[in-house]
């Protein structure tokens, strides 16, 4: 997957939140503030301020490309993003608010797209949501909207189809990467097997990993734990849970007076990024606005625990438990006899041409630039 892009850098935390209602409230408060207070709440950086205009994000309707202070316009509809490993949140899709939005990623973001994310400490993740923040390098599966032109080394699918005796779809390659790829000295390294049976086994393992990471979407069924086990809410979560705790004896996760079980120990202990437990980081992100040190728009959030968060928690527990269960199988999987660099070079797959490492030209419609001018590429 030669085309790689760093994740969008927000520059200010308040433009993302675990629930969309909070973002609409923050927008309203910022839009209604007086000039000096608005600038303070905005938290300007060298790249963005309340008075600076910016181009409209591709695929997003923006009422204004002038400075926010002059014409904030109506609040844009928040979009789902991947804010941290396994943490799906919401974002205000307005380039005036985002330091480095990476428009090239927004141009190819649609219902067909999948993103592979090289996360530090979590290996490779796959998501249908645009990853944002300091989450890692991003490799879209497709270079153009509509699932067109796979982001694969030119000639690779044809070579693999010839070697394995069956068509190879871009999604098959992504599944193989999830199963066979490993972090290495030069980044995430993916061996290619010369054995068709090993290829089929790796793709099948990768499909299971992908289905779990996508949590059933888009268009799939939500994964379930084997044996009929399923985490349930045993006691309703109160107005606001004070802490997140776990009892390994009863496999019970407590959110204040609320309880969820069964929660497998493997889900509770699932870690990324140097020992950070995913469930604890997920809970902390939803309590961040209640931190005494939170200021300005960052301190705005729900007064009561939203029921939707409990549903998200149940899905996350299932995801982590299933990934932990697949970890041993994935660790034991080996690519077998490899396709060598020489064979790839002889087939014209290597070296990868420079154009394949750059975004495709996908400007098939006019995009509005700052101050209402049209953007040029």
Q: How many strand elements?
A: 18
Rg over CA atoms, rounded to whole Å, is: 22 Å
Q: Looking at the structure, what is the overall shape?
A: flat
Strand content: 15-25%
Q: Please state how the strands of the largest beta sheet are arranged side by side.
A: 1-8-5-6
Termini Cα gap:
23 Å
Helix content: 25-40%
The averaged pLDDT comes out at 93
What structural category arises from helix and sheet content? alpha+beta
Low-confidence stretches: none
Number of helices: 10
Described by strand count, sense and barrel closure, the largest sheet is: 4 strands, antiparallel
List the secondary-structure elements in sequence, H or E: EEHHEEHEEEEEEHHEEHEEEEHEEHHH
């Amino acid at each position: 997957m030669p085309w790689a892009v760093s994740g969008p850098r927000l520059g200010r935390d308040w433009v993302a939140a675990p629930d969309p209602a909070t973002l609409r409230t923050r927008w309203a408060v910022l839009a209604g503030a007086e000039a000096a207070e608005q600038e303070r709440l905005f938290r300007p950086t060298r790249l963005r301020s309340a008075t600076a205009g910016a181009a409209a994000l591709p695929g997003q309707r923006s009422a204004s490309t002038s400075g926010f202070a002059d014409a904030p316009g109506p609040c844009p509809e928040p979009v789902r993003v991947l804010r941290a490993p396994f943490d799906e949140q919401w974002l205000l899709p307005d380039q005036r608010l985002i330091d480095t939005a990476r428009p090239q990623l927004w141009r190819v973001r649609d219902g067909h797209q999948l993103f592979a994310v090289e996360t530090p400490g979590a290996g490779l993740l796959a998501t249908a949501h645009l990853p944002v923040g300091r989450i890692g390098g991003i490799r879209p599966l497709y270079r153009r909207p509509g699932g067109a032109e796979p982001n694969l080394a030119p000639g690779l699918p044809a070579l693999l189809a010839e070697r394995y005796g069956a068509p190879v779809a871009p999604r098959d390659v992504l599944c193989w990467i999830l199963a066979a790829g490993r972090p290495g000295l030069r980044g995430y390294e993916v061996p290619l097997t010369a054995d068709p049976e090993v290829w089929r086994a790796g793709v099948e393992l990768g499909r299971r990993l992908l289905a779990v990471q996508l949590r059933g979407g888009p268009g799939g069924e939500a994964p379930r734990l084997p044996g009929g086990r399923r985490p349930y809410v045993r006691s309703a979560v109160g107005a606001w849970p004070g802490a997140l705790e776990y009892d390994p004896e009863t496999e019970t996760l407590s959110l204040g007076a609320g309880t969820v079980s069964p929660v497998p120990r493997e889900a509770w202990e699932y870690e990324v990024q140097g020992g950070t437990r995913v469930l604890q980081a997920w809970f902390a992100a939803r309590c961040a606005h209640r931190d005494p040190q939170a200021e300005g728009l960052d301190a705005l959030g729900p007064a009561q625990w939203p029921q939707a968060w409990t549903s998200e928690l149940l899905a996350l527990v299932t995801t982590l438990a299933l990934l932990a269960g697949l970890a041993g199988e994935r660790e034991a999987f080996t690519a077998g006899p490899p396709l060598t660099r020489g064979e790839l070079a002889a087939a014209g797959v290597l070296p990868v041409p420079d154009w394949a490492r750059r975004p495709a030209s996908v400007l098939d419609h006019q995009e509005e630039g700052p101050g209402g001018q049209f953007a040029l590429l």
